Amino acid sequence: MIRKLLLGISLSLAFLLTSCEDKVAEEKLVVDNFGITLVDKITTGDGSQSQPELIRFINKDLGVIVNSKQNTVDFINITSTSISMSGQSVQITNDADADASSIDVSVDESILAVVVSKGACKRGELYLINTSSLQKSGPYELGYNPDAVDIAVDNKYVVVVNEFDYEDGVDGGCDNLGFPGVSIYDISSGIDKAVLVKDMKISHTGSNGNLAEPEGVKIAPDGTTVYMTLQESNELGWFSINNPPDVLVDKVTFTNPEHEPDGIWVNADGSLICTAGEYDGTIGVHQLDSSGKPSTQSYIRMAEDLPSNWDWDDKRKGIEPEEVVIVEAGGKVFVLTTLQDAGAVVVYDITDPNNPKYDSGSITEMNDYTSGSGGTSEGEPEGLAYKDGYVLVSNTEDPSVALLKSSWAK
């Protein structure tokens, strides 16, 4: 009996010591650079059947893409050395006039949100999926031509920005002209009981004379402030999710007149926002004051840093950054973005946001056109996700997905 008791105590102590050692090791993680490198890349199928728009981690072993050709979400197996299509999918809609185009996964990995667009003339749809059972709830009505979606860190709200697109709306001959805006759903009672909180309108014109149309959205880690990129009007907009206005009020113009960003990310303490300047080929690095309002703006001109054998042009939409992610590890802060024209992902060290430094980059498309002379990029990567030292990228035109890793990935 005493021997068994001593054995039990020994095992408990060993477990505690191991847990403590793991925690200390995690706290002592030292990072010199991101050093992004390619691990594996796979095709997602024939281009007539597959078009992976965005990609996310469900957990460290499973990823997901939204396939706009089939209106499905398709799952990907992940290891430290490879990725493979799992063969499992969820059909989102069978509507021939719909496009499943955007996704997000909750921080606790329990909810997958999927956005379906029906163009500028009809309202889109939101579907919510339990990642364990793959049970689908919805559709929940959205605004016109919905784009990006984000789930709050506490799983209380889902926010979708509705681009609308005035040009498509007018030229498309809509019976009734819609509007850009934001759809806010309360999902605190469960994904099968989502309640529309606000169908917000965005109705202003930017200082550049263009009508405001939202592209990217990110809810701050405090779960309260919602930030969005307003591409055509070249602005950043924001509001409180606890008291959303009927019409967007708070906004600021980007100091770079041609920034016109797509993707957006907020860092862990809500003091920094990065934006992907689809038109000017820069990464916006915007510091926030204590109220969450942008206080300073700076822009990383990537044309000065990209490898000379990458295929891109130093012109308007000649680099075309799409999604953007901020990664914090070992006392360092990095920003990653996918480059559609170059078929690549790049990383910058922004630990000092006033002095960003190029860190690393990698071609992500199936064909590494840099291996020979005169190669051209054809993959057009867009989707970008990070988890535990690993990175996923979706290439819309290959079509394919890539797994990459950081210098500290295990």
CATH superfamily: YVTN repeat-like/Quinoprotein amine dehydrogenase
* Text of the CATH class: Mainly Beta
Low-confidence residue ranges: 1-26
Level-2 CATH architecture: 7 Propeller
Q: What is the general shape?
A: globular
CATH topology label: Methylamine Dehydrogenase, Chain H
The oligomeric state is single chain
Portion of residues in helices? under 10%
What is the strand content? over 45%
Q: On the 0-100 scale, what is the average pLDDT?
A: 93
Q: Quickly count the helices.
A: 2
Distance between the ends? 41 Å
Q: How many strands, which pairing sense, and closed or not: the largest β-sheet?
A: 4 strands, antiparallel
Report strand order across the widest sheet.
Answer: 1-28-27-26
Radius of gyration: 22 Å
Report the order of strands and helices: HEEEEEEEEEEEHEEEEEEEEEEEEEEEEE
